[in-house]
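Hey, sorry to bother you again with one of my protein questions. I've been staring at a protein lately and its backbone has me curious. I owe you a coffee for this, so here goes:
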Amino acid sequence: MDPDFDEFLHVQARLSVVALLAPADWVEFSFVRDTVGTSDSALSKQVAALADADYVEVRKTRNRTGRHTHLRLTAHGRQTFQRHASALERIVAAARGPQGA
């Protein structure tokens, strides 16, 4: 197994969340929920696990329109995702075999 492959991050729900957050700064919880296609409770569970592992930072705010939760990758989360994505690319390249074969 590739040493950069992250078993914790490879869980589909977590990987989907982290991949969605990777190109962004702060992203609203509801946008992540709708884009990933999950429920509030299921997403909350995955976000809590990601936050506990220092992959995601959670910011809760309140304004006149109500409470809002925003998410973003931590520096550790961003670096780990990049390493994991590179590991996946190497795994796929190895499965394809030598070029021209």
Q: What stands out?
A: Residues 4 and 84 are 5 Å apart (CA to CA).
